[in-house]
Amino acid sequence: MASLDLDTPWLASSIESFDGSLDIHIEEVSSSASLDSLDKSKSIIHCSQTIPKPPPLPAKICQRTKNQRCLTKSCFVPKETKDLWDRLFREGYAADVHIITENGSVIPAHYSVLCVASAVLENFLQQSKAKNGIRYIKIPGLPYDAIYVFIRFLYSSCYDEGEMKKFVLHLLVLSHSYSVPSLKKVCVDLLEQRWLTTENVIDVLQLAKNCDAPRLSLICVRMIVKDFKTISLTEGWKVMKRANPSLEQELLESVVEADSRKEERLKKIEEKKVYLQLYEAMEALLHICKEGCRTIGPCDKVLKGSQVSCPFPACKGIETLVRHFSICKTRVPGGCMQCKRMWQLLELHSRMCCEPDLCKVPLCRHFKEKMQQQSKKDEAKWKLLVSKVMATKNAFGPFMSRRSSFS
């Protein structure tokens, strides 16, 4: 059961009052507006009769728009067409462009296809001079196979999964550099959904930042934050640490920030648990003093015995606290911790109770009167605590099987 850390200096003076107020029996056990609106409605009806009817809707335009939508939905590229474009690329029939790779190998292609597929390639090809009807462009810094997969995609939008997995990072760079959004989307989606690992996440993050892929960057950062200990030991992290220390600092700050948010979230969860326990303690206290429970309750109530189960989870703890409070010789806030908790629970109940004159909880009205003698600082602390407990009650109330008697 939760405890309070609020001291009330005038509690000791209320001990004798409590003895007189605690009437609890403890069984021995082992432990005109309408007319105006009518006139307005009549005037509206009169005005509406003079308004001409609107012209009919343009049916032909709507029909044309509908047909356009149907054509858009019915667009379909059969496999045979894709195979035809794939074959055109593989065989290089009537090729008028030669793409030179890093190792000097040549990939034949077609000027019209490259210009339509990529505005960047179109710009390069227009600036190049044709020799014997052939234009030459060079793509350095990347392996031949990666460039081959890239050019093939420009023709048929097809790729081999094994080749794509092997060269996905190269293709991401190529698709961004030569402005091919369809290929870039394929690379990003495959990395996000299937091919992002602890070994390559650092490399993918750096490429995602350079290639303007914010969603992929965010997923990489989340993965690094989640499994920082493992990823910080990879070779990619060590290389990044030497080559890009600013990115390392950024990631470390993200890890610290995530840890802080996690600690703050856990702290709030623990606080809500404490307030929920206090709320349940208030329910159990009111239940014992008003209705009675098993072996403890008012003298005018018939107790049900210790074998009967109680629906209030905090009832057993409150029962033990009440038994101790009734026989404790010290019973002052500074002398006994259990009695101090009981005093605080009684005061908390008094601050939450709306009917002190009819309430059967001991000293409820007495605490209401004593509140005026408290300092502003103590009063502010109690108001904050009551607001937190009531907020927890409102948050968890619909999900609890029982109803509280506090309003």
UniProtKB/TrEMBL annotation:
- Recorded protein name is BTB/POZ and TAZ domain-containing protein 3-like
The record places domain BTB at 95-163
Q: In which pathway does it act?
A: Protein modification; protein ubiquitination
Pfam families from the UniProt entry: BTB, zf-TAZ
Gene Ontology terms, MF aspect: calmodulin binding; zinc ion binding
- What biological-process terms (Gene Ontology) are attached? regulation of DNA-templated transcription; response to hormone; response to hydrogen peroxide; response to salicylic acid
Gene3D superfamilies noted in UniProt? 1.25.40.420, Potassium Channel Kv1.1, Chain A (3.30.710.10), TAZ domain (1.20.1020.10)
| Gene name of the record | LOC113736978
